Amino acid sequence: MDRLRLAEERPIAYDTTWLPLRLGVLLTGMDLTQETIYHILEARYSIPVFFGAFYISAAEATAKQATYLEVAPGSALLVIQRISYTTQDEPVYIQKRYYRPDRVQYRVTLRRYHDEGSESKIDEFRAVFAEQALISYYHKSLTIFTFTTIDSMYDLTYGI
Hints:
The chain is an alpha+beta fold. Helix content is about 20%, strand content about 40%.
């Protein structure tokens, strides 16, 4: 499934998401502008999402991504790939999100522990918006973000 994420009606990210077919069909007909995939899986189907692994990289915008993100083809994009897991470390959701780096950055805070045997831990991993207006809207309400489904869920659901 491909989605475009907007803030103040302006594109900030382009998502490509894969789910196992058995889970993807559960989302057919759902309004993903009103509910997150996680919420639907957890609240309606009792499929909890326990943890995720994130991979951060960069990529050049494809022609399709460039069109939706309103950038030139080949423009640099921040890419965050996330693999989310349910019980018994079963992958439930794989997503690649391509951000416009002029509108979104990520802040990661690592806390170091000085006790013997303690490991450092990430305390914070969150989006930071490049424009002050977007920051203030984000803190007031998460509903500022809307999702536009580009292609139908059923056609773009793949088994993993």
